[in-house]
Amino acid sequence: MSPDLPSPWSEFLDDLDFVLDEPFTLHCIGGFAAVVGYGLPRSTNDLDYRLLVPYNRILEFERLAGVGSALARKHKVHVQRPGVESMPEEYEDRVTELCPGRFMNLRLFIPDPYDLSLSKLSRNIDPDREDVAYLAKTCALDSRVLRERYTLELRPYLIGDSRQHDRTLDFWIEAYFTEPKS
Q1: Which residues touch 169 (CB under 8 Å, ≥6 apart)?
Q2: What is the DSSP letter of 35?
Q3: Are 121 and 154 in contact (CB under 8 A)?
Q4: d(CA 168, CA 20)
Q5: Among 76, 107, 123, 176, which is most exposed with the fewest C-beta within 10 angstroms?
Q6: Cβ atoms of 36 and 111 closer than 8 Å
Q7: What is the pLDDT of residue 156?
Q8: DSSP characters for 70-107?
Q9: What is the pLDDT of residue 85?
Q10: How would you class 25 by CB atoms within 10 Å of its CB: exposed for 0-12, middle for 13-18, buried for 19 or more?
Q11: Ranges assigned E (strand) in the chain
Q12: Contacts of 52 by beta carbon, 8 Å cutoff, 6+ apart
């Protein structure tokens, strides 16, 4: 996948790549993945990531590009590792690289649209629901695949009331999907 990186992300990531002294891999999630990877027409000022390799350099990475860093002040965007997030268990097998070969030391990956949608289930605030509606429509998501991944790869690991998560998924399918719900 080689989307054009919008400004200021293009400049921010070019500058970040330049200051890295070894290869870094990021699994990008959240609004950044939806905007850059799937063309969601809104902006975001943070790049949430679930996985960073090498993990032992996370503090340094956040110092270079996180909230309050020189790069963040310059470009008005930043990277951050969310405190809580949920992804389907096998999501790593389905990630896609953004902009392969563009950077010297930076590799960015995003989840497929089903996994990205399911990552928004627990929080389920307005922007999350808007993202899921957009992904369902523009990526022609199949509700049966979404439900199967939820049941097998996410539900067993979610914290909180499983029935509430079930109801959220049912609402999403009713509201955002057009094919049969079976």
Answers
A1: 121, 146, 147, 150
A2: I
A3: yes
A4: 40
A5: 76
A6: no
A7: 95
A8: HHHHHHS-EEE--SS----TTGGGG-EEESTTS-SSEE
A9: 82
A10: middle
A11: 24-29, 46-53, 78-80, 96-98, 106-110
A12: 24, 25, 26, 58, 61, 81
Q: What is the pLDDT of residue 178?
A: 80
pLDDT tens for each residue of 63-121: 999 999 999 999 999 999 998 789 999 999 999 999 999 999 999 999 999 999 999 99
- The rounded distance, in Å, linking the Cα atoms of 119 and 111 is 9
DSSP letter (8 states) at residue 161: -
Give, to the nearest 10 degrees, the angle between helix 9-19 and helix 58-65. 130
Can you tell me the distance from the alpha carbon of 166 to that of 158, in angstroms, rounded to the nearest whole number? 11
* pLDDT at residue number 3: 59
Q: How far apart, in whole angstroms, are the C-alpha atoms of residue 38 and residue 61?
A: 25
Tokens 């609402």 belong to residue:
171
Whether 181 has a pLDDT exceeding 70, the answer reads no
Tokens read off for 22: 């070894």
- What pLDDT is attached to residue 72? 98
Residue 52 has pLDDT above 90, yes or no: yes
Alpha-carbon span 98 to 57, nearest angstrom? 22
Rounded-to-integer distance, Cα 57 and Cα 55, Å: 5
Whether the CB-CB separation of 31 and 129 falls below 8 Å is answered with no
Neighbours of 86 (CB within 10 A): 18
DSSP state of 3: P
